[in-house]
Every structure is written in C-alpha cells, then in structure tokens.
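[job 0412] stage=fold_complex status=start
inputs:
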Amino acid sequence: MKIGSPGHAVPRELVALNESALPRPPSATDFAVVDDPVLGHVERFHLSNGIPVTIVPRSGSPTVTILATVNTGTLDEAEGSYGVAHYLEHVVHEKTADFPDKGSLAEFVQARGASTNACTSRERTAYHIQLPAESAEDGLYGVQQLLFHALITPDVVNLHRGIILSEAGDYRVDGKQQLLADIFGQPSLCRAICGSNEDLHRVTVDSLESFRSAYYTPSNISLVVVGKISPDFPTLIERYFGGYPDTSNAHQRQFNEAKVQIPADARFDLWGSSHSRISFIFPTPIGSIADMHSSKVLQLILHGDTDRSFNAILRERLGIAYNASATMERLRSYSWIDLRTELPVEASGVGISTVRSAVQDFLRRPFTEEDKLEAVKRLKFQLLHEAADPLQAAFQTSALQLTVPHLGRPGRLLDSLSNVTIDSIHNTAMQVLDDSNMFLFINGGLDNALLKKVYLNGTIEQENRGSATRLN
Ligand SMILES: [Zn+2]
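[job 0412] stage=fold_complex status=done
writing structure:
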C-alpha cells in the first residue's frame, strides 16, 4: 500500500514522536522518530509524492551527505540494451535544465566544496553528494537537477560512449557468475554492469530517455540525508523533491521466482594457478522477511568465530593455511550462501571432501541461543563500524528503505534479527545446506586426478582457460 493513502497503518517499528523531532515538512505523511540501535536518532517521513526520506542527524558533523537511490539497475535492462542503466548514470551529470552548459552543474557543486559520485549495480543506481553543512541546500538542488532535469543530448551520449567502452574493455564473464545466472535462470546475473560493446553502440538519446521515464519516478526513488541538518531541512527536501507527481503508470517490476534449474552441478575455471579457490554455492529461497533474516543469521553463524562455527570445523580438520568464509549475497529475490575456501592445488581434493563433511557436521550440531546472540552481536559491531562514516551510514539506511521491495520494508534489521528463532535457523540450514541444493565452483588450479578420486566418480571434460567445464 502506498504510504499516505487512506487506511495506511503506521508500521509498528515507527514509534511515537518525541520532542526533539525536526519539524514536519508541509506535505509529509507519517513523520516518525526512531531510535535505531545502530544509527541512533533517525527521522523518517514521506514527501507528498510518496518519496521516502530518512534523516540521520549528526549535530557534531561539519558536513551533510545526501544519497538518492533509484531502485533500478542492470537487472531491469531489456535484451539489446544491456548497459543502459549505467550509461544513464553517466550522462545525467553533464547538462540539466538549470545548468545547460556541459559540466556546469559539476562546477556549481564543486565550487561549494562538494564531493559527488554515483554508482550503478544490478539492483540500484545511487547518486551521492557530500558538502559543507552551510551549503546543504545546494546539494539538494544538484541532486534534483540530475534526477529530474537532465538534458540528454547527442553530444553527451557520444562522449560517454567512448568513456564507457573503455571502462567495459577488459570485462570477462566470470565462470561463477555464469553458474549463478544458470542456477537462477536469470541471464543478467552474469552480464557486465557496463553492458556489451555491441549494445553500447546501439544506445541513443531515445533509449536513455525511455529507460529514465520508466524507472526514474518518485515511486522508485528514496532519499537519505546524514549530517548536520538545519531545522528547515525537511521543508527544503519537500520543496526540491516533493513536487514531481508520481506517474500512475510507473513501471511494475516483475520479480522472477528464484528457480534452480540444475539440481547438482560442478564447474571449473582452470588456469594453472598453484592455488584453488573452491566455492560451494547454496541457493537460498527467500519467500518472506523471516526467511531472509534466518538466512542472514545462519550465514553469520557459519562465518562465526566460535568453536562451533563452520570456520572452526574447517580449521581443525584441514590444519593448513587457508581462508574460509561464508557470505550471503542478495539480489532481490535471488539469494545464496557461498562457502569459500582457498587451498594449494595439492590439497584441493582433500579440501573439497573436507568442506563437504564440515557442512554435514555443522548441520548435525544443535543451534543454540548463544549462537544466535553471538551472530547478532557481530552484525551490530559491523554495522556500527560502517555507520561511523556518513556515506556508509546513508547506504545502510537506503538498503533498509529498499531491500527486497516485493517483501516489504524490513524495518530495523537488528531488532528483526533478534526475533529469529532457533527453529527457523535450523529449518533454513537443513533446507539450504542440503547436498541436493549444492553447486561447486572452482577457480584456479586443480589436481584433476585427486579431485576425481576423492570427490567424483564421473569424467572431467576439460576445456580452455576461461570456459566452464562440466562434470557429469
Ligand atoms: Zn562508469
């Protein structure tokens, strides 16, 4: 439901207003003050057109950081226009309605001591600016110009084609990304953010305009401001961003169900290195926020420092120099746990069987309340560490606003994580870390004979460096 519409219930995590709250902007709805366990005092509201705004006041800071996130990226690109999301991120900086001379917007903000940048990922395009607190309004103005008033002209498009082609130059499809793309039936997972050379030559003013009009709409945008905020700042944000109507035909994104296509698979990207990087990939179904949080806690337990962690099991068994880590990556509905280890080639075969048995043993041991608390404590430490930097704090906040939009907003991550139950962690672990849900990817050198003997009975067809080799 759109915030502000009749019948909208204020989410439970948005607690009552308190005295120190900034004044509510004229058209804002659901203004709320939250004491976030990581970010501290946080103020949230929606502009009259629905754009969510989060302010993280830091009165001691000399700067203000503004982050505008557009909920779009390479996952939204159509066949034949790969690279258009990142291309658009480049060209919007050059000319705008109020700064029609190429580069004059950049000069305007730089003259105020601002540092500014942007980035495009598979899911998001983010624009940020950090500037002295006294010039904060000019920062809002600059971001407004590039989000809503960029002039896309043929000279700018051609200039950036050259720049992006050189950025795209040495991209090579990574075998692991290819595997993930196959697992989830989602080809965009192995595409370069920059796009393909072929498609980059096809980008025009029109194709950029049509991508922009589909995705750069208020319903796809969120704002975060961190720093020394003047009392009138919420009103200024409304003035600069609240007046753009949310187009009723805003693009409805399709969420593909994560579906695993290959039940058990192993691939190799071999290039004669003395070491092997071994990855066990476990796709993780995310049907709800609870699933997402159980997976996150599971990942933290796997990666933990306690003697019950997966790392500790491996350390004890392998007894040689290695790195092992578990990470969970998340791309909208695609999520996976990646257990990685790096070993000398001669230990790779033993390493693979050891990792497999360590997974089995990890599943056999009971999960305890202590595991969970330790995991949540480590996450808090990590988030606090990041939040000390205003830009990182802004990105963290933005992730909470937009993460997994089809599931709704997760709210306060730490609170929700402490609600995860031991049973749900156990169930997630049994479901996700199952042999039938396991994919193996090896990058680097490999002792084939040892691998065959220890791990597989099948045959290995080896191809050239850079291509994936399948085992049957
Ligand atoms: Zn770029």
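[job 0412] summary: Confidence is low (pLDDT under 50) at residues 1-19, 255-263, 456-472.
[job 0412] exit 0
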